[in-house]
Amino acid sequence: MSILELKNVSYAYSVGTPFAKKALDNVSVSFEANRITGLIGHTGCGKSTLVQLLNGLLSPSEGQVLFDGQDVNEKGFDNKSLCFRVGLVFQYPEYQLFEETVYADIAYGPKNMGLDEQEIDRRIRTAAEFVRIDPKLFDASPFDLSGGQKRRVAIAGIMAMDPEVLILDEPAAGLDPVGREEILGGIRFYQRRRGNTVIIVSHSMEDMARYSDRLVVMDHGRIAMEGDCAEIFSKADALTSVGLDVPQITRFMLALKQRGVDVRTDVFTVDQARDEILRVAGGNRHA
User: Fold this and answer.
1) Do the Cβ atoms of 207 and 219 come closer than 8 Å?
2) Cβ atoms within 10 A of the Cβ of 132, count?
3) Among 127-141, 182-196, 238-252, whose mean pLDDT is lowest?
4) What pLDDT does 233 receive?
5) What is the pLDDT of residues 235-263, one digit of tens each?
6) Could you tell me if 123 and 65 are in contact, meaning their C-beta atoms sit under 8 angstroms apart?
7) What is the dihedral of CA 202, 32, 186, 253, to 10 degrees?
8) d(CA 120, CA 56)
9) Alpha carbon of 180 to those of 105, 186, 274: distances in Å?
10) Please, which residues bridge with residue 7 across strands?
């Protein structure tokens, strides 16, 4: 069942000027509830525009954006509640921190929802647990934290609003492998525990293979492909044609196949590759 849906949506910037540009062109796509969907595509393909439409920050030039079946741009729709129900974390959210303490920064969203102090405190502590922020840091200035810690605080601030849909634009951009695991692992832990809907925009095929349940591929303002990870990453040529690639481990399995090793090529994580190679090796021993 889909919770967010775009129907024949187009969006153009700077309409009526010489700089007019169509960012989305007749896009129809749905995002399934209770799953992590990866939104992938080369730079400038329209990913960031699409997620801002989902959150109500932008309104389509044409078409409909539906949340729980309701058009979010229809007269009478409660747009204020949409920003709480569909939480959006921009790229490099650490630059948006502004409160004096970590606790106050995470509390900003829940306070604006009009919640009482007890509920705000509960949400802050729950969100901090999801992103692995030690409560000992609550009284610290967010500006004294490391880059990865700052980003986790910013993400916790959106999680604390308890949105039905959490959208993150390149949440692990610029981080080292440890930082990527802390951020993306925390997001997956959050989604599995809460059972809500998460949409992650990313350029990293490895990250998407590891953390997504489903993928939507964009190219030049349109939807090029959508499906589960095995289905999408089995289409190496199609991904290459839109400026993307398959995970390195998938490319390795494709190379084995080309060399005559009878392995599956719908493999996109290291664990899957290990199991498949052991299966083939075991079969050869018994041959």
Assistant:
1) no
2) 15
3) 238-252
4) 87
5) 888 888 888 888 888 889 889 988 999 98
6) no
7) -60
8) 25
9) 22, 10, 23
10) 64
Beta bridge partners of 38: 200, 215
Contact 213, 226 (CB under 8 A): no
Those residues whose C-beta lies under 8 Å from the C-beta of residue 124, and which sit 6 or more positions away, are: 103, 106, 107, 110, 138, 156, 160
Token pair in block for residue 251: 């490319």
Give tens-digit pLDDT for 66-123: 999 999 989 888 888 898 999 999 988 898 899 999 999 999 999 999 999 999 999 9
100 vs 20: CA distance, rounded Å? 41
Dihedral of CA 221/224/227/228: which sign? Answer: negative
**Contact (Cβ atoms closer than 8 angstroms) between residue 211 and residue 173:** no
Q: Which residues pair with 168 in a beta bridge?
A: 89, 200
What count of residues does the chain have? 287
How many CA atoms are closer than 13 Å to the CA of 250, on its beta-carbon side? 23
154/140 Cα distance (integer angstroms): 14
Burial class (CB in 10 A: 0-12, 13-18, 19+), 209: buried
How far apart CA 214 and CA 231 sit, in angstroms, is 9
CA Rg value for the chain: 21
Residue 148: phi, psi to the nearest 5?
Answer: -65, -40
Q: Of 259, 231, 236, which is closest to residue 246 (Cα–Cα)? A: 236
Rounded (to 5) percent helix, strand, coil in the chain = 45, 20, 35
Secondary structure of residue 176 in the 3-state scheme: coil
C-beta pairs of 135-138 under 8 Å, 24+ apart in sequence:
137/102, 138/101, 138/102, 138/103
Pairing of strands 214-219, 62-67: unpaired
- Whole-prediction pTM value? 0.90
